[in-house]
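Q: Here's a chain of 445 amino acids. Please give me its 3D structure as tokens.
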Amino acid sequence: MSEMPITEFVRAYNESGTVRMHMPGHKGVPLIGAEAIDITEIKGADYLFEAEGIIRKSYGRVNGLYGSVRSLFSTEGSSLSIKGMLACVRGHIGGNARFAAARNCHRAFLNGCILLGIDPVWIYPEKPSRSVCASEVTAEDVRRTLEGDPTVGAVYITSPDYLGNMADISGIAAVCHEHGALLLVDNAHGAYLKFAGEGLHPLDLGADICCDSAHKTLPALTGASLLHISKGAPAQLAETAAAEMSLFASTSPSYVIMQSIERCMYELENGLAERIRLYCGEVSRHKRLLELAGFELIGSEPMKLTVGAAGKGYTGSELAEYLRSSRIEPEYADSGCVVLMPSPYNRQGDLYAVTAALEALPERSPLSGEEPPRIVRPEKAMTPREAYFRPYERIDVDKAAGRICSRTAMSCQPSIPVIAGGEIFDEKIIKILKNYGIFKADVVK
């Protein structure tokens, strides 16, 4: 097998001097720098969702690294992979079977439900979370949901979540399979987990199908994602996944992003996997230093730093601004915490810079004000699809009580719904929305 068949094809084509009488319009002229390797599906370049040539060869490398029966590329992020997962699983379990999902799903899940006509059953943990990012669903929560609704044929979990909490995928998988349900995992933040240690990646823990964002924690370009089907999953999933992904995908996939995925796999085979394992140990050491300095750390994900702020007298947003004053840009912040996502490609000393900045944080008394409101269970009036295609209007959230949500209300990041389409606003939901800086809402007319 060639080391990087897509990359080698593109390089050879670029060096051949062939007259480019095809898309794209830049013809390889270097305007921003990537044009020479930006091609389209010309002869010999294969077809992403009907791969028989160089792309299929590259898929084989991913299968070997992740232990999947089939893995596919997305150049449109895990948003595409999630819709593809839903479509191929729906095709297997049938249109009458339902999907149960943890509430901290990404908006791509709800968009897929709208497009496919799925009316999700929400899994609520016994103890409501104080963050839309963390549902903290357990295996027993899943068992209770499946026993309460025998029409559920698939369960959808997000793990790791945006804050770095990791679900008990092994326990949840066992419950799902005991009840004849398939397990789908949005592992967008955990593409590196396969290489961080034994038994961390969803494929190794019993998931039937999952997606990884190769750009979030691995060195691929933004938009690079992988969809994996487990060797233990029903054969139909592997047979139909590519066709189902193509239902939502562009017919002009990015060969630049595909080459970056291919290079990422090459890096994993040539030292990066070991670097990830060692770097997770380095992150763990810095976590201990921060705990000794009195910081609250959230989540167990090994390559993410989520720092609680209230104990130091700050909001998460204030802590983020403090870090920016030290030229450290975090991934995300809300009222309670700040999220930092390092990787082995950070410069030497970057982790020390973070730790030093936080250790030098000016002292304040711990915040003792009102805690963020717990996530509630909205009353439902119609399905997300029904609500989405009704006429709607945008109003102030303060005026939304009693109205039906038309389009899912969420902040840009982390793109997780506070209230989904078809659900009814109440005062508790309005309070949560305002806590996340959401002051307008789309409601059914």
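Q: Can you summarize the key feature?
A: The longest strand covers residues 152-158.
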